[in-house]
Write a structure and sequence with these properties.
Elements: H1 2-15, H2 22-30, H3 34-50, H4 67-70, E1 80-90, E2 96-100, E3 105-108, E4 122-127, E5 133-136, E6 142-147
Antiparallel strand pairs: 1-2, 1-4, 2-3, 3-6, 4-5, 5-6
Length: 149
């Protein structure tokens, strides 16, 4: 039982980076007698328990984007968003770019004339297979899109 306790205490101290006296830990490790070594580790544990806790120093983190803001940029998050089309731009080859009320900009990947949408229409964009996205209008029509902004 003493050996098991020794390994537990030793693992605890070796895994902890908050130990102030690394030298004292190394000294305990070098003690040959099991009972004396365990007593040495117990003294270190008592010192650690008595020491005031210091807050961890971490760099301030920027607020993560909301799930709606990151939709279309990363695979995690919601699987569908709803928005209103503020503007529809048509490119040289006929591909449409949809500017949404939430600030996102989506571009049609494949020309799909079956989808009839106008500025002011409410649409949904759903996540598809293999990282693709589909813009759905009224009815069961959709077009494949990718987020550009």
């Amino acid at each position: 039982m003493t050996v098991v306790r020794f390994f537990f205490v030793a693992a605890f101290f070796l895994a902890s980076s908050a130990i102030a006296g690394d030298q004292a830990l190394l000294e305990c490790r070098s003690v040959k007698n099991d009972i004396q070594r365990l007593a040495c580790y117990d003294r270190l544990a008592d010192r650690l328990a008595a020491a005031p806790e210091q807050p961890a120093r971490t760099a301030p983190k920027a607020a993560p984007p909301s799930p709606e803001q990151s939709f279309g940029l990363r695979p995690e998050g919601p699987s569908e968003i709803w928005a209103t089309i503020d503007e529809i731009r048509t490119g040289r080859r006929g591909a449409r770019t949809f500017v949404l009320d939430n600030g996102q900009v989506w571009q049609e990947k494949i020309l799909e004339r079956g989808l009839q949408v106008r500025e002011g229409d409410e649409i949904s964009i759903r996540q598809g297979a293999f990282g693709s996205y589909r813009l759905h209008g009224a009815g069961n029509r959709h077009t494949r899109v990718e987020r550009v902004e």
